[in-house]
Write a structure and sequence with these properties.
The protein has one domain. Helices cover 6% and strands 23% of the residues. Strands 2-7-6 form a three-stranded antiparallel β-sheet, with no helix packed on it.
Length: 121
Amino acid sequence: MCDLTQGKNRSLPYILNLSQLNLGLAIDCFKCMSINNNYKPCEDPFHNNYTLDIYESPCLGGKKGRDGLFPATSCIKIAGKFDDNGDTIVLRGCALDSGTLTTDTEIVRMSHCGGFFYDDR
């Protein structure tokens, strides 16, 4: 039987306590969508002191091929214009770095410029 009161074993309880820390905390982000300026708090110029209703804390995101939500690593903003009718769109949200380098899963790890499809448009 090991005696935990001996000098060489006193650090063991502290190591066990450190394992109880929650290191998976997510960042906080604003989540919103505006089409044709229909939601001003989401548009630019962005004033975060008036938008607490769209502030998500903690912000969680999904991973491709995995069920559930996971702590986000980045806040994102997507702004664009629809080709079919010229409508504008602004999306703000969060995403997480899944550790891959493919464009279908990593919106936060790569720079994106160009066209994209949203809601079959």
